[in-house]
Write a structure and sequence with these properties.
mainly alpha, Leucine-rich Repeat Variant, two-stranded antiparallel sheet, 20 helices, 2 strands, 1% strand, elongated, mitochondrion, transmembrane, ARM-like, signal-anchor, Armcx_regulator
């Protein structure tokens, strides 16, 4: 069966995730080690804790706003990055030392963060001290994993925490930037925060396109994964569809898996199907659709293909009329051509049939069957 994503009742009615997928909740790390170190190893460990997830069912259909020959909708809203670039500086004051000491107490507390503590954290986010910023961001990130903090916005929007974290996404110090990306990913678990994250998407996309260190790529994907659990800002991700497919080809194993998870979240939105089909496909797609492929990777590959092929069937997609021109790769290289191209469609069906019939993993067999059924003449 499927587990409901526990965000709010009206959202859980529209979204479900499978037993292997749930919104990524990152576990708190031991702050005693971080408080004496500026290393990013603790932060990297934080990014690898907990389960990540992707949706496998379609949400409520939203109005298409991508352009195509058949349908001319409104262009997606321009990226408004004002307020997200750069980082804040403030002069050190006599309050810094007591606030610094107070941070230690907050960091070791496994409880809901009260409003007065949240205000202290926001003040600390204006510091010039990179080590202090990193510690503060990790404290916020850990606090966001506490259930009581996930369902309230006491230290998120109301006290200005969310916007401060967003501004630190472009901090010059890599460890602070990584801590900000991680904190934003955990804050994204709150539904109210989700509504305020539109300006963060272009920044995260820019970070990803800049081809940073692998740990930054991976944590950026994790944060995008949490943001794309809901469909609100899916269209803002159109600028990285080519790159996400490319990461499936070139990334390390964890990067491949997380790139696929983000893509799967996007396929749950019918409005995104044309853009996903228009983007340049992974060159190794057919090769990955094989019994010998790692089970975790294969499960994501067949889920992605199942969602796309079902979308083509349900929406009656015409590759000439419906693929948005602004997102379209050269015709032979599109994802649509990688699935339905001459001499390719039969191979996809044949491989999916083999997986449906022979693979030991039941979830893979189920998704492979969906591909076969969706691609029937």
């Amino acid at each position: 069966g499927f587990d409901q994503i526990s965000i709010k009742k009206k959202i859980t009615n529209a979204f479900q995730c499978s037993p292997w997928s749930s919104p990524r909740i990152l576990s708190p790390v031991d702050m005693r080690h971080i408080l004496t170190s500026r290393s990013t190893e603790n932060l990297s460990s934080l990014g690898m804790i907990g389960r990540t997830g992707e949706l496998v069912t379609s949400p409520v259909r939203r109005r298409t706003i991508r352009k195509s020959v058949r349908k001319r909708g409104k262009s997606r809203s321009p990226d408004t990055t004002s307020g997200t670039a750069g980082h804040l500086h403030s002069s050190e004051t006599s309050q810094d030392q007591p606030l610094n000491l107070h941070l230690d107490n907050i960091a070791h507390s496994q409880r809901e963060i009260p409003r007065h503590d949240a205000k202290s954290l926001v003040i600390l986010l204006q510091s010039n001290d990179a080590a202090l910023l990193e510690r503060t961001l990790i404290t916020i990130s850990n606090g966001a994993t506490i259930p009581a903090n996930q369902v309230t916005s006491s230290f998120n929007i109301e006290v200005g925490c969310l916007i401060r974290v967003q501004r630190l996404l472009t901090h010059y110090k890599p460890s602070v930037q990584l801590a900000a990306i991680t904190a934003l990913g955990n804050l994204a678990l709150n539904q109210d925060n989700q509504r305020e994250l539109k300006d963060s998407i272009p920044v995260l996309c820019s970070i990803l396109l800049d081809q940073p260190a692998e740990k930054v790529i991976l944590q950026t994907l994790v944060t995008l994964l949490n943001i794309t659990v809901l469909p609100d800002w899916h269209m803002e991700c159109c600028i990285i569809l080519h790159h996400l497919y490319q990461l499936v080809d070139t990334g390390s194993f964890p990067v491949k898996v997380h790139a696929l998870k983000v893509l799967i979240n996007l396929t749950c939105n019918d409005d995104m199907i044309p853009s996903l089909l228009a983007a340049q496909a992974p060159r190794k797609l057919l090769h990955l659709l094989d019994l010998s492929t790692n089970e975790d990777l294969l499960l994501r590959i067949v889920t992605l293909l199942a969602n796309l092929t079902q979308g083509v069937r349900n929406l009656n997609i015409d590759p000439i009329l419906d693929l948005p021109l602004e997102d379209k790769a050269p015709s032979p290289d599109t994802m649509y051509a990688a699935i339905y191209g001459v001499n390719v469609q039969d191979k996809i069906c044949s491989k999916a049939f083999t997986l449906m019939s022979s693979h030991m993993n039941e979830d893979i067999r189920i998704q492979a069957r969906k591909i076969v059924e969706a691609m029937k003449p």
